[in-house]
DNA sequence: TAAACTCAAAAGTCAGGGAAAGTCAAACGA
DNA sequence: TCGTTTGACTTTCCCTGACTTTTGAGTTTA
């Protein structure tokens, strides 16, 4: 994973977010220090730090430009509902995975639950399903599990 | 057995797993070093490193891709593994439910896990899947989840 | 002096090429 | 026969660079 440059960038951003859930970078400087082209930073951000995965990204061009990433953290019911609502009718494996990881990082779900949910949503588990139905099945299963988890916390 | 190329691949993977129960390979490199086509690695993995035998397989395509195999820890797994093996390639909702209940009653899994697994296997969750594939999907998901649970119970 | 006009410095967009694993069905062999 | 072997084709993900857009600052102009 972190053998790829994108993996390194991701890890670096996650490390920076670890502090207080927010980080501000200069795109060109970061690219320079990592030995990649600037646009790869955009690739990483747009593929991994999406709203759907629990991040908001702000930026500004021109002189003194910046890119700012913030991890949204919510209380339990809100976070679960937000996750359920943001999933939509279909979700791909990677997005599902980081959705789970984000809930885990925000202490919304515990490690055991994260592991179980991840297993249920993994491509391997869903392999018997024809390709065209997999992502919709994944979304449905994810929502059901999150709701079940939510119900369990109350009762 | 090990006169066949598949046998050699199997042995090699087992050796690599010997260390700490997990190994990460580059499919093309391994195929290269063993003098076989890459897709034969898939054949070996899908025929020998199955959930029934206690293995979890993860992978990723594209640049920096990998295949990771994890042997589930055999701490007190016999009950779990027995359940995995008794499921078969397909399972209906009622049988799945009683399987979960049995594991719960026998203190093999805890209440939270039972609830999550039940949610994932519920007809509602699997509704987007065409009827003919639902039971096989359910079986696959169940096995993957049990394996993940078992794997987590080691720490 | 204030509005308008450069200009360079940032970030964004996009399409294409490449790398790696997955799929599948046909051929093969003990 | 049934498990093995193969390779053509697909899918996913990564990386790059050329081009565009936005912004702030400094400069010019009425």
Describe this structure in words.
2 copies of one chain form a homodimer. Chain A has 8 helices and 3 strands; from the N terminus they run αβααββααααα. By secondary structure, the first copy, chain A, is mostly helical. Chain A has 2 domains: 3-71, Phenylalanyl-tRNA Synthetase, Chain B, domain 1 (2-Layer Sandwich); 76-154. A 3-stranded antiparallel sheet of chain A has the order 1-3-2. In chain A, helix 5 (93-105) runs antiparallel to helix 6. The termini of chain A are far apart. The model of chain A has no long low-confidence stretch (mean pLDDT 92). Chain A binds a DNA duplex (30 and 30 nucleotides) through helix 3.
Keywords:
DNA-binding, 155 residues, 3 strands, mainly alpha, 8 helices, 2 domains, Phenylalanyl-tRNA Synthetase, Chain B, domain 1, homodimer
């Amino acid at each position: 994973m972190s053998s790829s440059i994108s993996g390194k960038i991701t890890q670096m951003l996650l490390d920076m977010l670890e502090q207080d859930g927010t980080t501000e970078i200069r795109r060109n400087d970061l690219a320079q220090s990592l030995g990649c082209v600037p646009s790869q930073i955009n690739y990483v951000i747009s593929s991994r730090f999406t709203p759907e995965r629990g991040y908001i990204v702000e930026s500004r061009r021109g002189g003194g430009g910046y890119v700012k990433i913030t991890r949204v953290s919510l209380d339990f019911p809100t976070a679960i509902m937000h996750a359920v609502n943001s999933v939509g009718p279909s979700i791909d494996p990677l997005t599902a995975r980081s959705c789970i990881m984000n809930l885990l990082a925000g202490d919304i779900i515990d490690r055991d639950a994260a592991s179980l949910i991840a297993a249920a949503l993994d491509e391997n588990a869903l392999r018997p399903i024809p390709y065209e139905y997999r992502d919709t099945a994944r979304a449905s299963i994810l929502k059901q599990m999150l709701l079940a988890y939510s119900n369990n916390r109350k009762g």
